[in-house]
Design brief:
Layout lengths: L1 E8 L3 H13 L4 E5 L3 H12 L9 E4 L8 E6 L15 H16 L6 E4 L4 H12 L6 E3 L3 H15 L6 E2 L2 E2 L7 E2 L5 E2 L2 E2 H7 L5 H13 L1 H9 L4 H15 L4 E3 L2 E5 L5 E6 L2 E4 L2 E5 L6 H18 L6
Parallel strand pairs: 1-2, 1-4, 2-3, 4-5, 5-6
Antiparallel strand pairs: 7-10, 8-9, 10-11, 12-15, 13-14, 15-16
Helix pairs in contact: 1-9, 3-4, 5-7
Length: 314
């Protein structure tokens, strides 16, 4: 395995934006772009390569599935786009079919790296990718609610007039309409969120947190309504996950993981804070939840389990 080689499968808005993010970070010396439309992959590789003299020495090129064999990381973004008014779960039929055509192409090669799913609905597709591939669960993850969590931190920072990097809060569950914010553990540099709100003269805690959660949950719909698609935010989120893998940071991120009994749940993938490092998902963290948060997580899981039961998976 080449620890500094990655591949991106799918060169649409999301895939090409992720490629740009990875190049900006200088994480890899070799980046392979794969797409059903070879010309599209070649065009993106050319466009990205022309800026390399200002960034870092690396090789960016359009390739084939043979090129994934020695990759440390393969990122799958291929799939149908979410249309205005369409939920992520409504994409399931189209994108599972696409995944069933992609994963066997990867498993047919001696790929021993990390498989990351970004296509939506990411939690369902992460579970499907694990089942189809037969890879160990720690080597298959989805981008999960890493972006949703960033949205929450950003909006909280705007609301409280404080640097969003000082905010510690997380979105878990489905990357979608049933996701939930873990308000019980939220804090600003160790100060519990309710107390920090009081220090800032914010006394409408319940209504403010409800409004902020709804803004996070509906962010993608609002962006899609205005510009047709979302891709910059997820590109930066995937760049952060890739950084944790390449640098073996063992950072905690709410990636989509295959559950094996955590919170009493199994037979699905959900976005749960996990330690992410060179081996992929090093450990799934069963963080404390308030009773109402546990109920919301169980409800989120029930929705996804209903969808998964309809799929024809190995």
């Amino acid at each position: 395995m080449n620890p500094r080689k990655a591949a991106i499968i799918g060169c649409g808005f999301v895939g090409s934006s992720i490629a740009f993010s990875l190049i900006q970070k200088g994480l890899f010396s070799e980046l392979v772009l794969i797409d059903a439309n070879r010309d599209k992959a070649e065009g993106e590789a050319m466009d990205l390569s022309h800026g390399l003299p200002y960034i870092a020495a690396m090789d960016v090129y359009a390739g084939t599935y043979d090129d994934v064999a020695d990759c440390a990381l393969v990122i799958v973004t291929a799939g149908a786009n979410q249309k205005p008014g369409e939920t992520r779960l409504e994409l399931i039929g189209k994108n599972v079919a696409i995944l069933k055509s992609i994963i066997p192409q990867i498993t047919a090669r001696p790929f021993g790296g990390i498989l990351m799913i970004v296509s939506n609905p990411v939690d369902v597709l992460t579970y499907a990718a694990w089942r189809i591939s037969g890879y160990p669960a720690h080597r298959v993850m989805g981008s999960g609610t890493v972006l949703d969590t960033a949205r929450l931190k950003y909006l909280l920072g705007e609301h409280l007039q404080v640097d969003s990097r000082s905010i510690h809060a997380v979105i878990i569950g489905e990357h979608g309409d049933s996701e939930l914010a873990v308000w019980s553990g939220a804090n600003v540099s160790g100060i519990p969120l309710p107390h920090f709100c009081q220090l800032q003269g914010q006394h409408d805690y319940d209504s403010a947190t409800r409004r902020l959660y709804e803004s996070v949950r509906d962010s993608a719909y609002e962006i899609i309504r205005r510009k047709g698609a979302t891709y910059y935010g997820i590109a930066m989120a995937v760049g952060r996950i890739a950084e944790c893998i390449v640098k073996d940071e063992r950072a905690v991120l709410p990636v989509s993981v295959v559950l094996g009994g955590q919170y009493g749940l199994q037979g699905l993938s959900l976005s749960i804070p996990s330690i992410v490092g060179r081996r992929g998902v090093e450990q799934i963290l069963e963080i404390p939840l308030a009773p109402e948060e546990q109920d919301a997580l169980s409800a989120s899981a029930s929705q996804l389990l209903e969808v998964i039961r309809t799929l024809d998976l190995p």
